[in-house]
Amino acid sequence: METREIYKKKYEAQLREWNGRLETMKARAEKLTAEAKLEVAPHLDSVHFKFDSAKAKLDQLATAADDKWQELSQEVDSGWSELKAAAGGAYDALKRHTDKAPKT
Known about the structure:
Layout: H1 3-30, H2 34-62, H3 66-100
Helix pairs in contact: 1-2, 1-3, 2-3
């Protein structure tokens, strides 16, 4: 298997993983109070946007010509870093509110 294909499969697997994480975060957010949801929503929106952006870059990478592949692969790597940072902010916001929530 060539390097390009390995790279693509790696990020496709990460997409599936992050999709699951995003769904988990959304489910946790649904259990929050209305005020907490208002604080967490922008963080989740950012994660969703970064996820969609990373997915679009990966789609571009799959069809990129050899001369553009290296440049696009760097953009994909950067997009994943941004996605992880946005997810960290969302996790922190969720944690602040779920730690305060009364146990039922």
